[in-house]
Design a protein that fits this description.
By secondary structure, the protein is of the alpha+beta class. About 15% of the residues lie in helices and about 30% in strands.
Length: about 300
């Protein structure tokens, strides 16, 4: 986990407090910095601000670019918050920093949440039962039926899928790329968090359970050290009963402080950065650190 904007290490920021002693809200400092060296003007879209539909609120935030550039915000077809800029030739840095208030509760677990038959699914969930660019549920349907066909429909099926994916894949950087599909991950048995999410989504859709991709900030709260370098994290949401529930096959445990940036069919819909050209990527830093109480943003 990399240092946050104040230069304090995550070990200094982290205080493990039992849930029973944590009745109030949780405040998390989140943000990121991207550096590029474009040789020409390059249009780009950044999705790094906490999105709509989450159980959190942005208390304060700052955006900076070097050099200073005009920008425009919009919401995409999934309701995600996006910022458009055009990078100038030479060098470009975008930095986002925010204090977010969220709940201290763990990810919910609802064992009796049911899976609806396809005929009873709400209209808006149907698109998340279909194959997509990285989630080829039609190709992996026979494997899904063999592995999960005898599971109790509903929460038990989704959890069984998470257990399988967590055990089947080995996490590691450099083992997958931007074109890696869920089929590739299944066959190679390795990947990063987005591959874990893609494979679980694929199996859910093969079982007619709506599933959508999500990514965002995930602080290392209640997690013992040592900590890996902080990065954006990917997980997924399954539609059970009358709502979407969070599942995380990469960690396969309930976490607190999860802050969603965007949701879509798969990672193609919700890249944190989309560039229209090759701006020569230099570096990326991400932070997500719990804070004891709200405090002003650093100048």
């Amino acid at each position: 986990m990399s240092n946050g904007p104040g230069g304090m290490s995550p070990n200094e920021l982290l205080t493990v407090i039992p849930q029973a002693e944590r009745p109030g809200p949780l405040h998390v400092r989140v943000g990121c910095e991207f550096r590029y060296a474009p040789s020409q003007e390059t249009a780009a879209v950044f999705v790094v601000r906490p999105g709509a539909g989450g159980n959190y609120a942005v208390v304060s935030e700052s955006w900076t670019t070097e050099p200073a550039l005009a920008w425009r915000d919009y919401r995409d077809v999934y309701g995600n918050e996006c910022r458009r800029v055009t990078m100038s030739p030479g060098s470009f840095t975008l930095r986002y920093d925010a204090l977010v208030e969220t709940t201290s509760a763990l990810d919910p677990i609802v064992p009796d949440a049911i899976a609806h038959p396809a005929s009873a699914l709400p209209d808006h969930t149907l698109m998340y039962t279909l194959p997509s660019r990285f989630c080829l549920s039609d190709e992996l349907a026979p494997i899904a039926l063999e592995q999960f066909g005898n599971c109790e429909p509903g929460w038990a099926t989704v959890q069984a899928i998470c257990d399988f994916v967590h055990d089947h894949l080995v996490f590691g950087y450099g083992w997958s790329g931007p074109m890696t599909t869920a089929v590739d991950a299944y066959e190679n048995r390795r990947g990063v968090c987005r591959d874990f999410a893609h494979l679980a989504i694929t199996f859910c859709r093969a079982m007619n359970i709506p599933a959508r991709y999500a990514f965002g900030y995930l602080p290392d709260i209640d997690i013992p050290p040592p900590y890996s370098e902080m990065d954006f994290c990917a997980w997924f949401e399954a539609y059970l009963g009358d709502r979407w529930y969070t599942f995380d096959p990469r960690n396969n445990e309930r976490r607190r402080g999860r802050i969603v940036l965007a949701r879509g069919r798969d990672a193609l819909d919700v890249a944190m950065v989309t560039t229209f050209g090759n701006p020569n990527f230099q570096s990326m830093v991400v932070w997500a650190d719990p804070e004891a109480a709200p405090s002003p943003l650093s100048p």
